[in-house]
């Protein structure tokens, strides 16, 4: 009887355990409850500071979301992007995708400082990035998801990885897809995660070639709506103005929604890497259409794909460390 009771109790605990897309790495699992005992206020602290930063500057939500993406695509989700150059470490902040572009580092510093006071050397910088990305999405009106936790921080960075592995705005569709596949992500993840461009900005230098010289023949990109191109030229000249900022989604630039996909169907995707989703591959075009028609479907897949991306090669167990300061190794 005692054995039966213990079995029933164990079964009931399993039955009511929250479902999550937990990630398995070679040294252990990531799971949402990782800090429930060691730092129960961790998620609350991250959420509070992200909300404060986004209230001060709306653009910060997109910047924090992008940091997680640029971190995970280089050596996995290990906070390598946060390391400054020192000793043998050459910072990923110097790479082409990140230089004069990646931002939000001060917000991560503030979160880390608060967490170190609450529970010293417990919450990793890599997990802070994953939580900040989720909270930024929710604050902008997007979906929520349980973030699997338990990542540890790298003891190195990869400038070459940052230069080569992060998809670039002017990459071909096939190159972008290949870069996603190398991370264990597929075409569905590619299209859904591109939807993060529903918020945030891009610099003139990221899309100038589309306005003036798309194929090296002195002609603009013929897949770009002409009236939209004319508007963009007013703020993005042939030379100069490299850092001038433009909304990635001009319809609802600070709201996380599916208007990004509607823009693409109207030939008004800002970056070449946005527009090719509907012009270079039939499967991706069908996904663009589906997400343009159904915001809920986009939200569901975005959440799934974010968890999947957050599970790229995490350091767990005894690998890596928990940095005291996200900018340098201990």
DSSP helical segment count: 14
Proportion of helical residues: 40-55%
Order of helices and strands: HEEHHHHHHHEHHEHHHH
Uncertain stretches of 5 or more adjacent residues? 1-20, 23-27
Oligomer: single chain
- Shape descriptor: globular
Identify the strand order in the major beta sheet. 1-2
Find the count of extended strands (DSSP E, 2+ residues).
4
Describe the structure.
This protein is mainly α and 330 residues long. Helix content is 46%, strand content 3%. It has 14 helices and four strands. It has helices spanning 2-15, 42-56, 60-72, 105-118, 125-139, 159-165, 173-181, 187-194, 208-212, 226-235, 259-265, 272-279, 282-293, 295-310, and strands at residues 24-25, 28-29, 201-203, 245-247. It has a two-stranded antiparallel ribbon. Strands 3-4 form a two-stranded antiparallel ribbon. α8 (187-194) crosses α13 and α13 (282-293) packs across α14. The longest helix is centred in the last third of the chain and has 16 residues, at 295-310.
Question: What topology emerges from the helices and strands here?
Answer:
Blueprint: H1 2-15, E1 24-25, E2 28-29, H2 42-56, H3 60-72, H4 105-118, H5 125-139, H6 159-165, H7 173-181, H8 187-194, E3 201-203, H9 208-212, H10 226-235, E4 245-247, H11 259-265, H12 272-279, H13 282-293, H14 295-310
Antiparallel strand pairs: 1-2, 3-4
